[in-house]
Amino acid sequence: MLKLRPAPTADGSPPRNTLEGRKAPEELIKALDGGMNPDEYLRETFRAAKRDNQISKGKAEALQLLFANLLAEATATFPVEAAEYKKLLGLE
């Protein structure tokens, strides 16, 4: 079957209603080829992003807590050095 390509626009770029020259995630193409609803794909993608964001947020909060605990222990054990360190970081 012969396919006719739409004529390029005046500036030489492909028309807006085609995917020619555009990139799409490979996972999206595979999901759509597999019969998945595009809306469902988008919903699942956002759920996964939200889940990954929550995991990253938890890790960042855990590291902040670890830093605070280590600094508190260092202050109790090495008060002079901890004071210098806090001053260097601008925590005092």
From TrEMBL:
It comes from the Eukaryota. Coiled coil: none annotated. One of its GO terms (biological process) is regulation of transcription by RNA polymerase II. It is found in: Nucleus. Component of the Mediator complex, a coactivator involved in the regulated transcription of nearly all RNA polymerase II-dependent genes. Mediator functions as a bridge to convey information from gene-specific regulatory proteins to the basal RNA polymerase II transcription machinery. Mediator is recruited to promoters by direct interactions with regulatory proteins and serves as a scaffold for the assembly of a functional preinitiation complex with RNA polymerase II and the general transcription factors. Belongs to the Mediator complex subunit 10 family. This is Mediator of RNA polymerase II transcription subunit 10.
